[in-house]
Amino acid sequence: QDEETQHSLECIQANQIFPRKQLIREDENLQVPFIELHGESTEYVGRAEDAIIALSNYRLHIKFKESVVNVPLQLIESVECRDIFQLHLTCKDCKVIRCQFSTFEQCQDWLKRLNNAIRPPSKIEDLFSFAYHAWCMEVYASEKEQHGDLCRPGEHVTSRFKNEVERMGFDMNNAWRISNINEKYKLCGSYPQEIIVPAWITDKELESVASFRSWKRIPAVVYRHQSNGAVISRCGQPEVSWWGWRNADDEHLVQSVAKACASDSRSNSNRLMNGNCSRDFSNGGDLSDVEFDSSISNASGAESLAIQPQKLLILDARSYAAAVANRAKGGGCECPEYYPNCEVVFMGMANIHSIRKSFQSLRLLCTQMPDPGNWLSALESTKWLQHLSVLLKSALLVVHAVDRDQRPVLVHCSDGWDRTPQIVALAKLLLDPYYRTTEGFQVLVETEWLDFGHKFADRCGHGENSDDLNERCPVFLQWLDCVHQLQRQFPCSFEFNEAFLVKLVQHTYSCLFGTFLCNNAKERGEKHTQERTCSVWSLLRAANKAFKNLLYSSQSESVLYPVCHVRNLMLWSAVYLPCSSPSTPADDTCAPYPVPGSSPDDQPLGRLPKTRSFDNLTTACDSSVPTTNRRSSDPSLNEKWQEHRRSLELSSLGNPGDDPFDGDSLSKQGRALVGAELSVAAGVAEGQMENILQEATKDDVGLEEHLRGSLETVGKGDEIALDREKRTENLHG
């Protein structure tokens, strides 16, 4: 009864709290040039030079004669007037949009409207995700069950913590325990309510440790290697300060993590010998003879393991100089003398200010007239790929320690909510095939990024009164870029494709969904975002074939060891370069609810076809079949299709209006403003970056050997890919 009452109230709120605004037309003959989403209300429709421009409470839509610009308002970072009649829009995902007007007054009017529209909200309910959900509730009130599945996370999501504890095989009887010390976030506002700690550590000790760690972010265990019992923990920096403070409980907790690993490993070996192992190993299959023999041999030294636990690795994401400098602000790093049986390593990762500066340099490079002779050196000067390389190396160090050396690892940076989740989430992705499935990736993002308090509202700039530009930084985007690099090196290891990641980038900022609102789980609970907004995972669910990787094999490598050198990394053209995105950021057909009066096959006015996956690759590669709906970076295509794609790209350089790409369409008018520079940028950048990978593959024998080794498990499809790669090398050589 209470549930039905609440449902009725939500339906009433849609009309009263989110009323539609009156449409203002510059010309009475103008019509809204797109199909509105539920709760979307178009406020202005006018004319630009050779275009129709419309502004709603969700998007900016510019319809040119043969193309459109369709961008969510929260994806726009800044708007400025250039050359008197031109608006220059800079987006948070690296795109730049230009729009020309006939008069100065027109340009100024739209400048004011857009600056008002993209301003951070004074209250969170001003974000479109709340209006969207409320109107969806009203429209689909009669379809309660279906609506519940789409708008609210399922039971498997809400219970993900306990599921993960069971899946990873923690010994909750002797080695570990779940502490509820943070129930109702009374200890730490940016931590989850339940955390895993060594079994013998009391809550009183945890309170003492919290007083010594930055923002009370105490060491918490987040991953256990299912074969050897080594764990990954994360925390904030110790507050050593210039006075050199130390905390006996903190030192005891860190050492206890290593001891609990030894105890867990011993009990795991005993369970194996007694035949009571009920959990899955590696790829989820039966325990192999090799794993069993290894477990037996480890069990023989169980007592010595318990007495002499493995040396714990403390991985500090910062440089040593930065860590010491933090002592001036009350922070610092662990002193090895006070943490026996621990090794401290500094990775030298840049802070958010350096990453923001690097990203701005990358955005400038990707949107200006390219100089083919100096483009690669200009890309190098942005340092973006170098930052990715350091992040990958940091995660790989964690993987090597946990998987090969069987050592526990503790990761932290300064506060523990930027570089720390980058390293930990990437390491878990490399270690565990489960996180490379669509469901597992959702669990990974929600646990390491959302539950442990990455400040999405501040970093993305869509929080309440989040005007401080120094707090903004594409931290999550940088991590997704690393995931994309892994997809390219291991094309058969991920259940989801590149379009999945691109869509996740776009909806990190779009505010169509409530998944990435607020700075931590406590704030999301106080704002009731789970009950009042839709989840992005309703769009990116495993059943959505548009995001499925056709090359995925569940029998691919259990643990991934990528090549991290800069020369092996690729610029993510689908996100950073114009005219190369595999899907649109605001595709109505990608919303969790269909638009009234439309069918899934209908294309909205002025919209290019969305990305889809071919069921028949042979047909897909036939040059007689229309191919404009395939993205250029799709690894699912064979050599014949790649040759056909190159011919399409070359032809598109002569006529930008005929570009065969999916995604954010830069207008023909916009292209005319900058000549052919955008098309040339896409062609030169993508082509030369492909050459980088080819040259790096020739230089790096280790990568080729790794690829050849993976062929034995993934089958004939990869053999074809490697043959094609070798033929390409010979051609360029």
Give an account of the 3D structure.
There is one protein chain. 43% of the residues lie in helices and 10% in strands. The chain is an alpha/beta fold and 733 residues long. Among the domains are: 18-119, Roll (PH-domain like); 155-270 and 310-576, Protein tyrosine phosphatase superfamily (Protein-Tyrosine Phosphatase, Chain A, Alpha-Beta Complex). The strands form four sheets. A five-stranded mixed sheet has the order 1-2-3-4-5, with no helix packed on it. It has a five-stranded mixed sheet with strand order 11-12-15-13-14. Helix 8 packs across helix 9 (289-299), helix 12 (352-366) runs antiparallel to helix 13 (375-382) and helix 26 crosses helix 28 (716-732). The model is unreliable at 145-156, 271-306 and 581-733 (pLDDT under 50).
Name of the CATH first level of the domain at 155-270 and 310-576: Alpha Beta
Low-confidence stretches: 145-156, 271-306, 581-733
DSSP strand content: 5-15%
Structural class: alpha/beta
